[in-house]
Amino acid sequence: MATNAAANCPPPMKATSNGVFQGDDPLHFALPLVIIQICLVVVLTRVLAYLLRPLRQPRVIAEIIGGIILGPSALGRNKKYLHAVFPPRSLPVLDTLANLGLLFFLFLVGLELDPKSLRRTGKKALNIALAGISFPFALGIGTSFALRATISKDARAVLRFFRCGSSCGLGFVTLCIFIGPPIFKWMARHSSEGESVNEVYVCATLVAVLAAGLVTDIIGIHALFGAFVLGVLVPKEGPFAGALVEKVEDLVSGLFLPLYFVSSGLKTDVATIRGAQSWGLLALVIFTACFGKIVGTVVVARLCKVPFREALTLGFLMNTKGLVELIVLNIGRDRGVLNDQAFAIMVLMALVTTFITTPIVMAIYKPARMARSEYRHRTIQRKEASSQLRLLTCFHSTRSIPTLINLMEASRGTANRGRLRVYAMHLMELTERSSAILMVHKARKNGLPFWKKGQENDPNHLVVAFEAFQQLCQVSISPTTAISPMSTMHEDICTSAETKRTAMIILPFHKHQRLDGQFETTRAELRHVNRKVLEHAPCSVGILVDRGLGGTAHVSASNVDYTITAIFFGGPDDCEAVSYGALMAEHPGISLNIVRFIIDPKVVEESVQLDIDQYDPETRSNNEEFISDFKQKASKDSSITFREVVVSNADEVIDEIQTHSRCNLFLVGRIPEGPIFSSVNKRSECPELGPIASMLMSPEFSTMASVLVVQQYRRQLTGDSLTSLREGEMKEGEYDSC
Question: Per its UniProt record, what Pfam families does this chain match (predicted)?
C-alpha cells in the first residue's frame, strides 16, 4: 500500500535546470519557476495598484485582487495555465517564501507599534476600541451558527490547539520581555545618530527574528507571533529601528509579501459560492461585519462626545480588513475550521469592506472644512499695522532653508520686535512603507501636524536650523513635521494655517535653480500641492521662486543689505505684495522700490479702451485709495521709493521691469488687474505663478533676484484667479518649460 502511494506521488522538483538548449523545460525546475511566479505576481499587482490609484485604494487591495485573478477563480480555471505556472509541486516552495516574507513583515509591524503610546491611550480611545471588538465579535458568533448549519457542517474545532498554545505562548512572551529589551537597548545606545548602524547588530536581530519564529512554531503557535513580539520589543528611539526597517522593508514589501496574497488567492475559488443560499450568506457576512464594527464604534464614540462625522469616519476606518485577517483565515483553513466555500466568502468580505473604506471616508471626512474657524488677520494688508504677524513657511528639503530664513529676517523688521511669529513646517510624503509609519509616530499627534512644544531637542537638522535662527534673532518660531500623501498634503497645510491663524502661507516653487541659472523640476507633485493650497487656503499665499536670497547662509540683521522691488498694476494681489514690501521696509537694511504702471491716456487702441470701460469701478476706487494711503506713508519713510511709470504697451512694461533686474527680491501679485495689465500677455506657462512672475523666471529675463508671488486671501476665488488654476490642472504636462 505504501509502495503504491509512493509511486503515485510526483518526484520533487530539482532546484536548477541545465537550460533550454540542453532540452530542459525551466517550468519543471524550482528556481526558474519561482522566479517566473514572483515576476508575474509583482507585475500584475503593480498594474492593478496603478489602475486603482484614482480610487485611492491601498496596495493591499491590488494584491488581494491579484491573488484571486491568478488563482482558480479566474485564470486558474484554465487547467493548462494552472499546472504550468502554479503546479502543485511548486506550492510548498511558494508558500515557504511567502511565509518567510510574512515573518519579517510582521516584525516590521511590531517595529511600528510603540508600547508607550498604549500607556498614553485615554479611556475614550480604550472604550471605543473595546466596543469595536466586542460588538462585531458577538454578532460574528451568531453568524457562525448560520454558516455551521449550512455550508460548514464538516468544520472541526481547534480548541485543544488554543489551550496548549496559550500557556506556552505566555511563557515565550515573558521570556522575551526579560531578555530582549536589555540587548536591543544596548545595540540602540551604540548606534549614533548620523552614522551607519553596525552590520553585526542588524544581522543578529534578523537571526533573532528567525529564531523567535522557530520557537513559536515549535510550541504550536504560528511563527509570525514570535517575529511580531520581537519587533514590539525593539526600542523606537534613535537610528537603530530605522536601520532595521531600511534593510528589510523593500525586499519584503516589494517582493515576498505579494506572494502571500497569491498563495491565499490560489486557495480562493469564488466558483464555490453557488446558489442563492451561498450568495445570501456572503451578503449576511458582509452586513454583519460592517454593521457590528461601524455601529459599535459610532455608538460608543458618540457616548464619549465625539462629533458624529468623526465617529462615523472612525467606524469605517475600524471596519477595514487586510493582512492580519488573511493570516487568520489561512490558519483557519489549514486547521480545518473553514472549508473552501467559507474561506472564499470570508476573503470576499475582507476585500469588500476594505474597498469601500477609502471612498466613503473621503466623502464624509473633510478635515480642512471641519477645522474652519473665524479670525481677523488673514492677510498682510491690514489696518492694525502693529498687530502680530503670523506666517506659515513650508519646505521640503535643505535647499530652500537659507532663503526662507533670510526672508524671515527681512519680514521681522525692527520697529516692533516680537511681532513676527513663524510656523516652520517640514513637508514629508507619507507612503505605505513601514519607515513612513515610523516617521508618523514620531512627528504626528491626533492626526494633525505635531507642533513642537517646550525646549526638548529635535534631532531633525532641518528643524534645528529654524531653532538656531530663533535664538539669534528673537523671532518666535514653532517648527513641525507634517507627513501626508501628496494628494492630500494641501489639507494639512491649510488646516494648520487655519488652526494657527496665520496671515500668509509661504510655499516653495516646485522647481529649483541649477548652477547654469536654469530651472529644473524638483518634483512634479509639488506643483499640484501648490495649486490646491492656492485654491483652498484660509489666508494669503506666497510662492517663493528661490534664486538664493542672501546666499547660502543666514545673513545677520546688521549685514542685511537688500533692494526689493514691488510691481503694482492693480487688484488685491498687487496690494498684498506692496503691503508685504512695506513690512519688509521696516528693516534698516532694506530699501523698497514700488513701481506702479499707469496706461498712457493718449493710447486710444480699441481693445485697450474697451478694457478701460469694463474695468470694475470698485476695484479702481480701492486701488486709488490704497495708493493714496501708501504714498502718504512712503513720504515719511526714506527707505521706500515710489514711482509711477506711464506706459503704452507691454514692451514698455517689460523694459521698465528689466531696469530693476539687479535687485535682490521681486514682489509681485499672482493675478494683477487694471487696464494696463490687459495689454500684457496673460498666457502663463505656470498658472500658479501668474504672467508677471512667469516672465521674471523665464530664461529671456536676465536677473538673479528671487521672486515672491503673492495671492491675497479671498473667501472664494473667482475670475482669472480660479480659472487659471483649473486650466493649469487640465493642461498639466503641456509645457515642458514649467
Answer: CHX17_2nd, CHX17_C, Na_H_Exchanger
